[in-house]
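Submission sheet (multi-component)
Chains listed below:
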Amino acid sequence: MAILKKIILFAFPLFLTGCYQDFDPKIDTEPVLCLNSLITAGEPIYVNVSHTWVYTDMAGSKDHSVDDAELQIFANDILVDSEYIAQEGDHIHIIASSQKYGEAEAEVTVPFATQISAVDFTPKVTDVELTQTPGWGINASIEFDAYINLRISDDEKTDDYYRLIDKSFDQNQIVSFSPGSFEPLDPVFYEQTNTFDDVMNGTYYSMCFSDRLFNRETNTINFAFSPCYIHLSGLKEDQADLECGWEFTLYSISESYYNWLAFCDQAGGIVFGDFGDYGLAEPIWGYSNVSTGAGVVAAQSSATITLNLQDFLSDYISKEYN
Amino acid sequence: MKKAIILTAIIFCAFGAFAQNITIRAVNRPASEVFRSIMEQTEKNFVYSSDLLKDMRITVDVKKKPLKKVLDDIFRDSDIEYKIKGNNVVLKKKKTEKPKKTVITKQVQTSHLNISDTVKVTMLQSLDVVSQSENHPLETAKSGVNTLSGTTIGNTPAILGEPDLIKALQILPGVSETDAGFSGMNVHGGNPDENMCMLDNVPLYQVEHFAGLFSPFNTDIVKYADFYKTSVPARFDGRLSSFLDVHLKNGNHKGHHGSGRLGLTSGAFNISGPIGEKTSYLIGLRRSWYDLLSIPALAIVNSRNKDEKTIADYHFMDFNARVDHRFSDRLSGFVNAYYGDDRLKAGTQDKKEPTEGYYFKEIHKFKWGNILAQTGVNYKFSDLLSAEFSAAYTGYFSGMGYDILGKEISSEYTDISHDKIWSSNYIHAFSGRGDFSWHPIDNSHLRFGASYTYHSFLPDRSVKENIFNDITVKTRNIPESTGASEMNAYIEDDWKISDRLHAELGIHTSLFHIDGKTKGGISPRFSFSYTPTSQIALKGAFSHTVQYVHRIDETYISLPCDRWVPVVGNFKPMTADKIGIGGYWQTKDGAYAVTLDGYWKFMNNLLDYRNEYYLRPQAWSWSERLTAGKGSSKGIDLMIEKKTGKFTGHISYSLAWADRRFADRNDGKPYPARCDHRHTVKVFANWDVSRKVTLSALWTGHSGNRFTFLPQRFDTPSLPGQSNFYFDDEVALKAPINNYQLPFYHRLDLSCIVKNKRGYWTFSLYNAYCHMNTVAIMTGYTQETSYTHLGNNIWNVETWSKPVFQKFKLIPIIPSFSYTWLF
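Outcome: structure written.
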């Protein structure tokens, strides 16, 4: 955004002087039901039912609950109760009704989880400091870049959508792991990049992607973390517990989930965000797969794999001392 | 006769510049037509008062006679005398003699010549060509046709004092600007990309500079521009709404003359003159200098920041060059070139790269523009048959990208993060054409011709490199260029059936071959004019137009991400059928006129973005983001003009409707077009206060643009992974497209031209009463405060933010001036 401001400051001050004036547009519009739900395989189904409100309606903004809502949930065309646990492959149909706000419905299929069959790790050590203090043990500080490939079994025949998250861990007081910044090294992370936004804002990526740009020759998703730091404090020679690393979870998400996240990226951009706000582009509304246009009913399932750096650490330390 | 206040000038075509011998055969032809033929063979300007040649028709038959002999023949025994003064032929009424019937000229009550309304000469050295006489409502079968001279364009008040052809067109009824102050135009409810802008008959794709604030035509070298919005001659096709054919001045054969203009935002320089006896040249250059003006400001900013350098550079430029050469009495040739672009560079850069520490550089670049080259020959087979053969290249290009470099430098290791992207769009068109003009009989003017164009489209080319140390992720989207062949042929006849009935009949056929498929179009054209009296014309017109290339843009302003693309896949060519009915009446002396034009336009196979197209991956083809649909527009344009005297101008009113319907937009329901301006009023006045001072005023008012207003909000689903920096926990609810009409738009522009010996000053006030017009409805917050008296002079003060809708208004009063030096 910084560059946009610079350009506007530079190019438009003489004449694009804008001003704002509060006003009441007096437009007829009626509130409707809104359904929001994230259905996760293996968990009960929760649906948030609310109603829409006019932007200037402070009361509606504060409280948009629906007192008289009736909710029906169908799993594979069978009416289910609140105890029902969603399964991968379930087709969920939600219908809500209210005397005051009418009816709303949405459908979603819980995707099958895509398994991560392997994780390849290539470290590139950039700095090491090792000291050994008698009676205390080894102190070490290792700086490295981590290059990672996730091998996944994506089904080529179906349109699949994913969200990747990473979570670092370290096990005890001896090992302190700082995982560095995520560096996307795969076109899939740039799938939703709007070129103009990209140029104006600088590069950005999304951890939410589809399989449209997936590399089917290698079946991998590639990324890196940099700079990673591992600090060892008082490591004894016989101590083998050096567990640290990442846990990668690949969520298989419904198209509605993907669309919502894609919308969030676009709405925050230059074209649809800034230009749309200022009347220089068509304004965009929130994505919805609900019949009323309000809310998102999404679904997900997940698979997880762990990358433990213990072997890397052990090998490295023993190599340094030998 | 009234004093010759408004001089009407018809200037030369360069062909035949030094061949003073004239060959001309005309039987009972309008004087304007005869003079045009003479000026095509000489380079003399005809200067005369507006009403001098009214109703005059000429019969003359000479072969290779000197100009003086021809003029003697024409004006012998008439009440008109002429004097050749340098490059001008000045016509006056004889003072002492009473009007006599002439032998070779005769007055015909049913014909009129009144061309002064569009031509005013600021200085004799700067005369303008006008062909208004050919398009005069009583003389032509066409309706909805206008011709603007360079001077008319110069007199039209414009933003920042920059004379602008497109903005001059926007004062006409039926034409509206897309946004306040911008050059995009909607003609009779059409989209901006449905207007064909041509430079000497070659299309230009990008007709906007500075995001659309200026058009690319350097008005200092524009001779005249023909604008067709209802009747479309069969020789034009390829757009649905209007055709603008801009003609540049020809080179001066007598000496090197030109002008230089300095304005607030740009400067222009043009010069023309002879090269030997048979050749002339014209060079025009216009460049904005905002970048130069900003140098001191940037220097101050950069001197205050020791670490970082700010880079900002924007300019636009236009370069025109034209060379005309006369090979013989029959054969002449020309070469014409144009280059125009906008360039923007902005960013920051650390002033020094440290031996240890962090270094950062960020440069963003944009460029977009047109390039055009044309060459051709004109050959006169006989007095009745002539032809022009030409070859041309026209191209549009745009590109944008950045280069962001970050280095973390230590004594042992350097981390490098380097992101680069360059995205570009190209369209190339190579064409060859032949156009013939034939007068088989006196009352018929036949035009016919054919052309072939090869288009090459490269609309989505991008290369992106994300370099992280020694790993490079290259994302390339380099589609093969899409080639398309287009063939066109036309024939049209301007047929004066009788003194009262005039018709233009024509047909244009086209073939467009792309991706192994051939699409075709047959476009009949028909216009008629019935003149029951010498002051009234009743008109009707039908035109069918076909468009194979269109522009897709995500914003309402012109940006380098706009792309011109062909109609591909299963999409059919866009078409429009337009019916026009109208009438024209003028007073006996031609001082006042009333024009009434009604139209009904049906558009098919229009293309626009689908609903929520932005959710589809950027890597997808553009065509997968589009949907086809229909549109219609209808309305009435009424214009009352005062055409002669010191005080001229017009008042116009338009009543219009425009709507669209797409299968995959707005749930398939019809919706009003953005330019659905129900009521439009324009008042234009021009007052020649003295020979040195001219004042102009333009008041424009119209129903506001249609706007997609999203009044309701709903809870966001708060899904893990969503970026909440744009909205917190609420987001806009879908609403019908263009469901809200913005407030009535109005503004007053004023300009004043003051001449002196060497040139003239132009002073202008854009939006003189500073009514900033609403361009959007935004959401915001206002601070509310409440005071509660708790007693003993103790008050409880509460402040909170209240959500409000806000009108977003743009462009206040803008004074500006420029000076034009003539030499």
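Remark: The first strand of chain B starts at residue 7 and ends at 10.
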